[in-house]
Amino acid sequence: MTRCAKILCSALLALSLSNGNSARADDNKVDLEQIGDSNFIEKVLIEGRGSTATIRQEGSANRAWAYQYGDNTEITVTQLGRSNVAGFVDSAGSKVKLTSTGNRNEVQGGVGIDSTFAGTQIGDDNRGSVGGDFKSRGNTITFEQTGDRNNAQAIMAGDDNVAKEVQTGSDNRSYSTQIGSGNIFDVNITGNNSETNNMQQGDANRAFVTIR
User: Which has more pLDDT, 207 or 193?
Assistant: First the structure.
């Protein structure tokens, strides 16, 4: 089992737990802010259509995990500092927005159906890994990384998925695996000593690669 698959399975298992911050009706709103080091938002669970969660952490070595279990929900995560980790799992028609500023930050997550992930990481040595299982389709994963030695990985199984990776800086690494049909991979890298590896398996897939 790949690292991304392990992350996804672990997060889905956590959805069955009842502990943590949760919203169980429709159109709920959750706002969380933590300032300091080594804080842990263990779980924000949204179980309602049209619900939103906003998470902001400022400091170092903070962690936040968010789960969406309802249609058309939205999670926004902002982390400022170093060595922070953000994780998420979303469901049908959901949106995840992540902004990470600092060094050695990491994002991990899994997408569902017709969902959107947009991740922006600014700083050195950042890492991002987002994927979906064979039931996922119609998802869009976007990484934008600015800084040195960044690493972005999209693993998507299903049809009509889109992976976009934009990296600006030196020694960047871009990876994508797409299994299914009608998928699109689009990478744009500006910098020195960059590397991209893309694998597509299926029919009517397309790949666009620009390295400057």
Answer: 207
Q: 171: which strand partners?
A: none
Amino acid at 212: R
Asked if 14 and 91 touch (Cβ cutoff 8 Å), the reply is no
Q: How many domains does the chain have?
A: 1
The structure tokens 């398996």 sit at 201
Range of the domain at 48: 3-211
Q: Could you read off the pLDDT of 98-130 as tens digits, one per residue? A: 999 988 899 999 888 899 999 999 988 889 999
Write the single-letter amino acid at 81.
Answer: G
Place of tokens 């159109």: 27
Q: Concatenated DSSP letters for 116-164?
A: EEEEEEESSS-EEEEEE-TT-BS-EEEEEEESSS-EEEEEEESSS-EEE
